[in-house]
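In the design runs reported in the main text, the only information available to the sequence generator was the tokenized backbone. The following block is the verbatim input for one such run; it is reproduced so that readers can re-run the procedure and compare outputs position by position.
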């Protein structure tokens, strides 16, 4: 999981990016790239998106439930926000 910037045309968004399989959902060894753009609403289908990686947050891991995965994703987004926007740490 990485902190990155997503570039779409002239727009730039902070993003939390996962690269690799989805071990919680047993996706096998298929490598995926999933980018969660912070503060973005809209449709990106048929648009070119460039990712600029800034920091590695953590390795991929398997969670026992989707609830645990969602909780970790919230922590990941908070950390990405802190790193990319240079905000002071928030209690999680």
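Verbatim output:
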């Amino acid at each position: 999981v990485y902190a990155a910037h997503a570039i779409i045309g002239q727009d730039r968004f902070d993003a939390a990016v996962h690269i690799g399989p989805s071990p919680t959902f047993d996706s096998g060894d298929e490598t995926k790239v999933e980018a969660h753009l912070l503060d973005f609403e809209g449709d990106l289908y048929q648009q070119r998106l460039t990712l600029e990686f800034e920091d590695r947050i953590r390795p991929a891991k398997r969670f026992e439930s989707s609830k645990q995965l969602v909780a970790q994703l919230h922590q990941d987004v908070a950390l990405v926000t802190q790193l990319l926007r240079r905000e002071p740490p928030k209690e999680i």
